[in-house]
Amino acid sequence: KLHSDLDKGVGTVKYTLSGDGAGTVFTIDETTGDIHAIRSLDREEKPFYTLRAQAVDVDTKKPLEPESEFIIKVQDINDNEPKFLDGPYVASVPEMSPVGAYVLQVKATDADDPTYGNSARVVYSILQGQPYFSIDPKTGVIRTALPNMDREVKEQYQVLIQAKDMGGQLGGLAGTTTVNITLTDVNDNPPRFPKSIFHLKVPESSHVGSAIGRIRAVDPDFGKNAEIEYNIVPGDGGNLFDITTDEYTQEGVIKLKKPLDFETKKAYTFKVEASNLHLDHRFHSVGPFKDTATVKINVLDMDEPPVFSKPMYTMEVYEDTPVGTIIGAVTAQDLDAGSSSVRYFIDWKNDVDSYFTIDATEGTIATNELLDRESTAQYNFSIIASKVSNPLLTSKVNVIVNVLDVNEFPPEISVPYETSVCENAKPGQVIQIITAADKDLSPAGQRFSFKLSSEASNKPNFTVHDYRNNTAGIETRRNGYSRRQQELYFLPVVIEDSSYPVQSSTNTLTIRVCRCDSEGTIQSCNVEAIFLPVGLSTGALIAILLCIVILLVIVVLYVALRRQKKKDTLMTSKEDIRDNVIHYDDEGGGEEDTQAFDIGALRNPKVIEDNKIRRDIKPDTLRFPRHRPPAEDNTDIRDFINQRLQENDVDPSAPPYDSLATYAYEGNGSVAESLSSIDSLTTEADQDYDYLSDWGPRFKILADMFGEEESYNPDKVT
Q1: Partner of 382 for a Cys bridge, out of 267, 298, 305, 347, CB 3.0 to 4.6 A?
Q2: Which residue ranges does the record assign to the Cadherin domain (predicted)?
Q3: Which residues contact 683 (CB under 8 A, 6 or more apart)?
């Protein structure tokens, strides 16, 4: 109830209400100020409401007092039962656990006010699941209540848990949940054989490694606790058999380690032990976790194929052995009680098998064709033996025939060698290591020997040093070699083998003379390289090439500019009739340009020139031929040139032009005189070129070229 001191009870004051739930949850009487709840309240939904109230004048609508705030609290009652929010629960505990072993803790939640009364105080109890489990009434911890609960007796338990508020008193609300508890396995049971003796029957034809029977021990445990290991106890017949565990069925699989023979032994007896792999030390007192059973195996007689005396046969035969020669024999027997005869034949698979034949009764193997070791060094084929009484029973054996070598091929150099020697080589220097190969199959200890042929042993150039390990070295015998004198040397080497009969061959090595530096590194082996300058690096060569390219570009630009200038000059000359001057800046074509003029007159003044129209210029008017007086015998070329110059000066048909001609004429005052050998009265052999050595290092190559007296002979064999 709200009331203002200014309210005289005459209806002049009006009360208003605002805030949480005003108008929806709470309402106020505007005249009396009474506050009422217009619907049910739930503390769990909203525990309190904050409202504001004010007294207002009815006429002026103005507040008579400041607004006041107050809180309405909802008082709790026990209207909510405890709930297990995480239920139902699943838990597990090992079997054979002691009393009080922890299983699980459950928790129930009550939505009522825990600070008011006992509405939210929860107590736990078990409605179903006793006497196996117990629960703490305050904490909700579930524990085992009985000792030695056995999983093999009962594995699953369902426990019903109740949570009750009001401290468990009468009138309290309660909630329940279920807990499913599983007993997990422990290894508390040893394996046991269901019977003490197992009987097995095994055919004697069973293959080694095959399974011949199964036995099983029973273990009531589960998972890895039920894994069993089987072992054969050492004793009678146990060495012929083996036993393993099938990981899926936990059965003992008995396998054959050695072949059985009914004629040798008809029965075997041995013991098998079954034990757990994973033991639990808590249960050792129960007894040994293993069991033993006896296995009796009876061998069944079977009709068996023939048996060869050896698992494989190896034979040897020399190549080129005559056809029909016996090289060996195979033997097979029928070991059954009623022994039967055996027949032999070759298992034909390819054409290689046709090189041999076999006697069907005796089993002897003979050659059917001539054998060549170089073609096929080994033959591998199979022989089949069958019983006459039962041809379907067959056995097979592998036969290897090695073809022995007969020394028929001489040894040769194994690979072609590219041998070179430096010009500055010293005597005794090894320039090449050579090896040999023989197409024959070299027997153990065979060696190759190397030597020079008889015609080359007296030459002073090279020698062969046999290292006696199937290799040899080529050594120099001279102090230096000259490429200009002889570029190639041909060295015949004789190679012999050590087989009988001895085979030998002569192999020719080609040795090339090369230019090397002081350390012996080859720089050039080509003939052209003799005339090339030495000492230029790659960078220097690139720089020279760049300079040449730049010079070519400059020359091309220069020629193009000159032609353009000539064209402009000609056009100007044609337009200007007052000065009909034509400029020629072209140089003559040289000796190869035979169309411009005949240079023969310069070489032989006796030649009488024919009157020809010049082809290097285009005259404006037709030139008339004129006769020139012939040059006298022994006239000097200078006089000839002056004569021609005077003729052109007085010729009115020839336009003035500049013509530059270069003549191969050496003046009379030259100190060096002519270097040409034309018209020389002496031969090259009569010349003395020793003075070239005095001109310095730049003329060293020229001095070497003309300084040697001995001529070059490429066909010389040394």
Answers
A1: 347
A2: 4-84, 85-193, 194-308, 309-413, 413-531
A3: none
Length of the chain: 718
Residue type, 570: L
Which neighbouring-strand residues pair with 135? 142
623: pLDDT confidence band, cut at 50, 70 and 90?
Answer: very low
Q: Does 83-184 carry CATH code 3.40.50.970?
A: no
Rounded (5°) CA angle 449-455-456: 65
Mean pLDDT value across the chain: 80
Look at residue 110 and tell me whether its pLDDT is greater than 90. no
Distance CA 295, CA 245 (A): 16
For domain 197-300, the question of CATH label 3.40.800.20 is answered with no
What is the pLDDT, as a whole number, of residue 197? Answer: 93
Amino acid identity, position 409: F
Q: From residue 641, how far is each of 588, 591, 599, 661 by CA, in Å?
A: 16, 17, 12, 11
**CATH class of residue range 307-404:** mainly beta
Taking alpha carbons only, the member of 339, 334, 337 closest to residue 308 is 334
C-beta separation of 67 from 52 below 8 A: yes
List pLDDT tens digits, range 222-278.
888 888 999 988 876 678 899 999 989 989 999 999 888 887 888 889 999 998 888
DSSP state of 691: G
Architecture of domain 13-73: Sandwich (2.60)
- Rounded to two decimals, the pTM is 0.39
With a pLDDT cut of 70, the percent of the chain lying above it is: 79
Helix (H) or strand (E) holding 341: none
Q: Locate tokens 């949850």: which residue? A: 25
Please say whether the beta carbons of 200 and 297 come within 8 A: yes
**Integer angstrom CA distances of residue 470 from 460, 467, 493, 496, 500:** 25, 7, 14, 10, 17
Of 189, 193, 200, nearest to 293 by C-alpha is 193
Answer positive or negative: Cα dihedral of 441, 443, 449, 453.
negative
Decide: 220 and 192 in contact? Cβ < 8 Å.
no
Q: Is the pLDDT of residue 649 over 90?
A: no
CATH superfamily of 412-524: Cadherins (2.60.40.60)
**Positions of CATH 2.60.40.60 in the chain:** 13-73, 83-184, 197-300, 307-404, 412-524
Q: What is the 3-state secondary structure (H, E, C) of 417-471?
A: CCEEEECCCCCCCEEEEEEEECCCCCCCCCCCEEEECCCCCCCCCEEEEECCCCE
Average pLDDT over residues 664-682: 55
Q: What is the DSSP letter of 223?
A: G
Q: List the one residue out of 203, 201, 202 whose CA is nearest residue 303.
A: 203
